[in-house]
Amino acid sequence: MVHAGDGRVLATHQAATGSAFVNDVVVGCGGAWFTDSFNDVLYFLPAGRDLAGAGAAPRTLRLGGEWAPVPPGGRHWGANGIERTPDGRALLVVHDTAEALYRVDPRTGDATRTVLDGGSVGNGDGLVVHGRTLYVVRNWAYAIDVSP
Prior knowledge:
By secondary structure, this protein is an all-beta fold.
């Protein structure tokens, strides 16, 4: 965690060990949510608590439901881009290998595959929701797709 005013490091957290790639982050649904592209999990740091004290480590949320599992070892990419849903009650997460977008319940990790009305999430990295429009940064396609 970094102080927004002067850039001082306020706290450092280790979310995972071994084959992990903590990739993208979004603030919402009660705190900061991080994707791990090599494991079928999200990491969560709640807002409004002492992030440097005891028990401040990120919580791990296992992705389930319709989420397509990623083989272990870091050779396949799973969770990448992440954003809040327009209503702010759930998370949208890109699954790189499946080239799919999932709606994730932040309480349970239950993931439901979401069909887009236009656009693609293939090579989806960054996500931005503006109103009810989803913008998908497709890193290796060098493109930004828009889904109304």
